[in-house]
Adenosylmethionine-8-amino-7-oxononanoate aminotransferase
Amino acid sequence: MTAPLSSPVWHPYAHLKTQRAAPKVVGGEGPRFTLGSGETLLDATCSWWCMIHGYAHPRLVAAIHEQAGELCHVMLGGLTHEPADRLARELVRVTPEGLNHVFYSDSGSVGMEVAMKMAVQYHQLRGKSAKHRLLSLMKAYHGDTAGCMAVCDPEEGMHSLFAGYLPHHPFAPAPTAPFDAEPEAVASDLAALREVLERHHHKVAALLMEPLLQAAGGLNMTSPLYLRGARELCDEFDVLLVFDEVATGFGRTGRMFAADHADVTPDIMVLSKGLTGGYLGHAATLATDRVHDAFVGDTPEHAFMHGPTFMGNPLACRLALESLAVFEEEDYLGKIEELNRVLRETLLEDVELAVHPAVAEVRVLGATAVIETHETADLAGVGDWAREQGVWLRPIGRWLYTMPAYITEERDMRRITSVMKAWFLRR
Ligand SMILES: *Cc1c(COP(=O)(O)O)cnc(C)c1O
């Protein structure tokens, strides 16, 4: 029984029996892409949150062309090149104080694998080889490779199928206190985290978290105070703190990095999605001196044994440099603030939406907004319906969200939120 499709392309997360032919995208400009049919769709998701400058940004396109004429690729084993060196210096400059070392890889999942291996080997090199487990949070999503699946939410996550295949790690409850919670409200989240650390710290190398915004696991928006408390607990229990800023990095929560809201430096931080403005896959795992210096030593075991073929790809590094330059020169944090204002006004402050029987909660943080429903069925067909309205929406489970490109203009942002609301209120 084969699917009734003509293309051999196997699509991600697709049910082969019920999927329909995917529309073919032939181009894009700004916040919109164009289909072969001639339809133009306003992208509310900026292609899984990475196309932060929208499509066909002239400066990014020019950067690829220029770099392609100079050097498309060379191995980073034993060699280096200007874009890799310059980007590493730039990432050290813009990330929280103390993250001084940059390990490149080719995707967010691999960037997290690098972080996890680094954390385990760090403890091993310090003679603490019992610390070889990771502590993760419920509702977490860290990627689709085996190591990453094992630290995704073990119940709601789509990876429960592989439970028998994966290593077992301890989990702490997902934080519940919202972004603007009072310290007392965050205290019980931190008490729960402490309790798990007290029980498991002797075997835990690192605490992993998506700071402030647990994205694919249901857009759970949490408090900066939780990050501060987690930092203190990690120091107390000799556990490294790893921030997975693959989704939150580069402005998504309203600051350059989620860590900036809390003034916290994690020991290891992972960047990907927005890193290249989405134009090529790439990732960076940053580490502090403390982590890095543990690898300075005389034995063969001191080498960090990881090296993806495409790490530090010159095209990707050059794109990332251009992306960062545009971000800073064109005041993207200001643009994100404007988007946030529109998202609050049109979604958060909509009284009708808040009391709609299908709606459990509406949340907004930075350039991210979500309408959480009670059941997945509440969103059945929303993607097709939105397409008829000229908007590309792709919910995750019970969550109808937007993470627009930062160049999305107010008129288009309002168009996106009015279509999201209309699904509930005016269909
Ligand atoms: C998307 C995502 C990943 C995985 O990145 P890929 O590039 O898809 O491998 C990891 N962590 C978070 C928080 C993500 O949102």
About this structure: The CA atoms of residues 400 and 420 lie 8 Å apart. The mean pLDDT is 96.
